[in-house]
Amino acid sequence: MNPWRRVCERVPGLSHTVQVASGTTIVIPTLARADLSGPDPVLVVRKIHGQLIEDFRADEASRRIAAALGYDRIRVYPRGSEWVRIELLIGDPLDGEVPAPLAGRGLSVSDVEITIARDELGNPLRQSWVEGPHVCIQGATRSGKSVWCYSALAQLARLDDVLIAGSDLSGLLLGRPYVGTRHHEWQATGSADVEAHRDLLVRLVAEMDTRIRNLPPRRDKFTRFHAGFPLIVVVLEEFAGLLRLASTAPVEKGQPKMREQLLALYGRLVSEGHKAGLRLMVVTQRADATVVGGFERGQLGLRISFRLDDPEALVMLHGQSARDHLEEHQLAPPGVALVQAPARPLGRVRGPRLMGPSEDADYARYWDEIADGAARLHEVAA
């Protein structure tokens, strides 16, 4: 029995069993060509009638095909309506770095797609922040989560019609890099004053309510922005930690606990913010149930998970489909993540980097990009 037939018979979905006069026959996709001359061997296969390319690309199928043929991974491309091209790979296609492309000055957020990752086929994944959903990013320390945030925010901050707002207990992602910019007054940082974070969210909810009241007739959301009316990216850096801190914060008699106030404000932003031109970016080490419950998970449509110390957090954010990735993702190198988005199933990607002069220079490059943007924002204001 040849190797290709053995693979097809053992991988669910790649073969069909039919009954003929002479007995049982197993029908497999026809191997038309095997090119072993290049560094990555290539198979050209004719699909069985009714077979889809997803039958070869599905996570379990692709892993089984690669393992059965003695390779680490495969990449599958369509070739017309009847054929597929299968590349057999040694090593991980996500090993290489992904530079973050920074948009030129003077562009609008309505016209720019932000690079969020590169998939295992080498394709860039881009997201319009005008049309895109709210975002949740989780990951352990040194997993690549912060580097991804530097890249995404640097891309967004270059656009004159974007405002970077939000809450950050550390003051590293927000706060210090934004001093001197118009973003800074819309940010609350540090752990000394929980009320400042609450007041910032109150201000953002008030802005959201004003915008909703002022929606033009026959419009249910804002889709065009300018420097005087920007799209607001609301970054909630380690919001679960803020909630834990707020649980012990004193409040006036008769007022709800600070933690409940924060959760109520967050709930309003995540459920109503999209129509008003607010996009949440929830950043956490672990998708806590208070931050990503069933309702919130439905609103946080773009979900990104870097390596996690608690693999069950994958299931909390991505649902039961994440269980197939638990073992592999515990060993994911920095920068490699699982991404899920509307109309996009859960899959492995590598996040972009700002590519500083050294491996540890991502934050310095982020700081420089924001500082460069501050000068530009002063020009816009003038």
Give a quick summary of the entry.
The protein has about 375 residues and is of the alpha/beta class.
What does this structure look like?
There is one protein chain. By secondary structure, the chain is α/β, with parallel strands linked by helices. 30% of the residues lie in helices and 24% in strands. It is built from eleven helices and 16 strands. Strands 8-7-16-15-14-9-13-12-10-11 form a ten-stranded mixed beta sheet, covered by helices on one side. A hairpin with a 2-residue loop joins β15 (336-341) and β16. α1 (3-10) packs antiparallel against α3 (59-69), α4 runs parallel beside α11 and α6 packs antiparallel against α7 (258-272). The model has no long low-confidence stretch (mean pLDDT 88).
Topology, element by element:
Elements: H1 3-10, E1 16-20, E2 23-27, E3 30-35, E4 42-46, H2 54-57, H3 59-69, E5 73-79, E6 83-89, E7 113-119, E8 124-128, E9 135-138, H4 145-157, E10 162-168, E11 187-189, H5 194-213, E12 231-237, H6 239-246, H7 258-272, E13 278-284, H8 294-299, E14 302-305, H9 312-318, H10 326-329, E15 336-341, E16 344-350, H11 362-381
Parallel strand pairs: 9-13, 9-14, 10-11, 10-12, 12-13
Antiparallel strand pairs: 1-2, 3-4, 4-6, 5-6, 7-8, 7-16, 14-15, 15-16
Strand order of the largest sheet: 8-7-16-15-14-9-13-12-10-11
Radius of gyration: 24 Å
Number of helices: 11
- What's the order of the H and E elements? HEEEEHHEEEEEHEEHEHHEHEHHEEH
Which structural category do the helix and sheet elements fall into?
A: alpha/beta
Mean pLDDT score: 88
Overall outline: elongated
Measure the end-to-end span.
Answer: 76 Å
Strand portion, in percent? 15-25%
User: How many strand elements?
Assistant: 16
User: Based on the structure, what is the oligomeric state of the protein chains?
Assistant: single chain
